[in-house]
Specification:
- With about 180 residues, the chain is of the alpha+beta class.
- The protein has helices at about 25-30, 125-130, 150-165, 165-180; strands at about 5-15, 50-55, 55-65, 80, 85, 135-145.
- Helix 3 (about 150-165) crosses helix 4 (about 165-180).
- Bound molecules: iron/sulfur cluster (2 copies).
């Protein structure tokens, strides 16, 4: 058994009934994560997407979750309030079977980081911009097993290795590092 440590668990409670589909959350998230910060916005780069079935008037905000190298064997279908959503529509994974939660230029996976920044925000930006309170930020303290968290860089490298092959990736990094030194 590993060591126990205190951890702040951050959650965003989603009340889809209150979402009006304004997409302010998508704009705010993509602007916050632009380089430099707030220099541009593009919902395709957002780590929250609002899923809408045109004929079924309901919006469901979905947060980008973990990267997965292979698509899963089973598919989910949801019926909410009598309205059926497409397979995979509400899944949080950045996965090879669709373009959702991928950086449009590089194809690198996107994942919600709860707006980690220095200085820390009082509340994640998507929550601040959601005027209908469909998104509500909550924090609680829990005792958890000590675990090593995978860093964004590692997740990105894993995705590139899956896409281009490890050998090619190592070769490219080696070539770039020589070029940088010159
Ligand atoms: S900002 Fe709030 S109301 Fe607007 S789309 Fe996002 S979750 Fe829905
Ligand atoms: S919490 Fe921050 S990173 Fe996550 S979806 Fe909202 S704005 Fe984006």
């Amino acid at each position: 058994m590993g060591e126990k440590k205190k951890k702040i668990i951050k959650t965003i409670k989603i009340d889809a009934d209150k979402c009006n589909g304004c997409r302010a959350c998508e704009v705010a998230c993509s602007a916050f994560h632009a380089t430099p910060k707030y220099s541009s916005n593009n919902p395709a780069r957002s780590r929250i997407r609002v899923i809408h079935e045109p004929l079924k008037d309901m919006f469901v905000p979905v947060y980008a979750g973990e990267y997965t190298a292979a698509e899963c064997m089973g598919r989910d279908k949801y019926v909410l309030d009598g309205k059926e959503y497409d397979e995979c529509a509400l899944c949080r994974a950045s996965c090879p079977s669709r373009d959702l939660f991928k950086e449009p230029d590089s194809g690198l996976p996107l994942k919600c980081d709860m707006c980690e920044s220095d200085p820390t925000l009082t509340e994640p930006l998507c929550v601040q911009w959601c005027i209908t309170d469909a998104l509500v930020y909550e924090e609680r303290e829990e005792e958890v097993e000590e675990e090593e968290e995978q860093e964004d860089l590692e997740i990105g490298l894993e995705a590139l290795a899956d896409k281009y092959g490890m050998e090619k990736l190592i070769e490219t990094v080696a070539r770039l590092s020589v070029a940088k030194k010159e």
